[in-house]
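yo

u said u wanted the structure for the complex thing, so here. seqs first:
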Amino acid sequence: MTGCRPTLAGNWVVAGLALVLACGLSVTATAQQGQPAPQDVPPTPEVAEPQGFITEPGWLGRAAIFSDRKLGGGGNGNGFYVSTKSPIQGSGWITLGPGYRHSFQDDRVLVDVSAGVSIKGYKVAEAKFELPRLLRSRLVLGTIYRWQDFRAIKSYGEGPDTTEDNPSTYHLRSQNIVGYSTVRLARWLELNASVGRLSPDILSIGGDEPSFLHSETSLVADTRDFPDHPTRGGLVRVSAARFNDRSAGLYTFNRYESEVAGFIPLARSRVVLALRGWLVAADTQPGQTVPEYLQPNLGGGHSLRSYPDFRFRDDNMLVGNMELRVALFTHLDAVAFADGGSVSARFNDLNLDQRSVGGGLRFHTRRATILRTDLAHGHEGWHVRFSLSEPLRMARSTRRTAPFPFVP
Amino acid sequence: MTRRQWTLVATVLVVAPITACAKAPRPSLQPSAPVAGAVLWVEPTDIATRDLFYGPWGAEHAPDATDTFTLVASNHSGVNLAMTVTDSRHREWSVKTPYLGGLDSEAPVEVVVSRLLSAVGYPQPAVYFLPAFRLTDDLGTRVMAGGRFRLQDAALTDEGFWQWEENPFIGTKPYQGLQVILMMLNSTDLKNSNNTLYQRRTGDLVEQWYAVRDVGAALGDYHRFIPRKNHIAAFEKTPFIVGVNNGYVDFAYQGSYRPFVEGRITPADVAWASNWLGRLSDPQWQDAFRAAGYQPADASRFIAKLQQKVREGQALANDINRSSRDQK
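structre next:
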């Protein structure tokens, strides 16, 4: 493994990411304007949902109401809830389990515990304790424990040139405990830091895996209107992480990420152009390697949609996505998309040579993507996907545990 | 998926609707012992002059639209966003606002229903609507979509909820009439926790107000599983009364609270409630909807439908009277 040299492979990659960055930042800047003068009656914000090009049938509207009430992403109610959070891509299209969440003392203390089993038998359990209103909400401190059991993670081998035939699978179980802090520099700008211990086991080979002490620092600028169904705004995230092998001393490495996304409303918000670019680079010292389960994976419903989950992995990764979302009905979008990306051992070899193009449908409320189906075509043929989440979800901007295995 | 997984999914798909469709048991209604100072309804002797824009608590209690409110805490229950805020006069308000997107917006409905109930004599807390307001939280000040503001008044203390099944008023005309009005409005969330028992102190006088409070699930349709709220097209399509069976009114209402009214409401009850609502003038109806921020065109459609229901209720009693006279 060579060291990370931050030069991009090809001017067109630079141009693409620059475009996305510009979109994200411009919307960020726009969102800060327009503060009304005091003592005036404030203008009434637009709350109505953008109408589709076709009048929506009643059953679809009612389905949206039901989804908004039960699954809409409000996510702040005290008490028991049904957890549908997918443990990881490839775990099946639906996950169910119990959850309990409670805020105490005027939102100064938050407790959230949940567990879930996916339709393929992947299990996850999580407990979080957070103090979100320290220093007048400028500082968040918290701790989170996550246990997960993924019974059949596919492995196609390392590098961009593997074939899709005969992947092996492994059974991965892990525990991760993390302490984290967030400094809120503004409503849309956060500086995050975390430190934790990750203890993986690969049960299928019965080997002792090393445990890791990991830490991460990230800066996130986020002006998206709704993270689970963004229609305007953008996100810029840069992060640096270190994984320190505390057992074998062979798997210590640094990882750097840069993620940029922009959501540009057109035609009175009936059309949204969504762009996302994500770059992951590993930096290892001589004699150290990145273990397979911590290498970034490419392929699946959130990256290259014509490829199977975990199709490509290596130390470095680049992925770009573009989607054009057209509101057929108020709550149903037709989508055309193009994905490109690659993995490589050397950072300079990254490109967008692995590509997918396709189309799909999104059923959504104003706040969340409820159900989507994508039909994608790439070098390895067609792939149909069903999912309950936004494709460009950028979950890493809010997730505090170590991504494990590392998938978009 | 494996065969076992398919079986599990199929079982859930079959069993869940059957369970959900099972008819709710008919509740047993038990009048409780009289409670000192208990008030469900006070005859509105001045109904013609009641102000339905500012409501029974008047303009002096209303929130100031130009004020900047301070967030105290978010509330963590219900479908709509809710929070507690204070204003520059240190008054505390419970605020309910719609999620962006406008689906299931309960705030304006709650204000309209509160205005109508208080106009015909049912005590209500001080509620108002602001189309937008400025909110300061720890991270700064921003403009929020408006909502229902309910004043936390020191003279009105929340003593918990009261039950439809057991209270001192069961069987009385105001109790029956209240349910008729809620049927007219297509109220679909009549659970006990939405009823509030208030202790009202006025000097030495202490009253126990039996108020229906969280009444925002209305003015739509009464679909049993996914009722629409605040939906004029759906509201216009729903009928009110189907007929009279064995001396009791058969409502078109199909919501999950139907067992509370099925076989219990007489034409005279419907007439009682309809006659009180029928005494509201057109400007009063308009004021009730204007107070909740409705556009005039939408308000007119809601009012036309409600007035049609009122006439239907009044006519029902006339029909019964005529029929009994004919039989004699």
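Chain B has one domain: 33-327. Chain B has a mean pLDDT of 87.
cya
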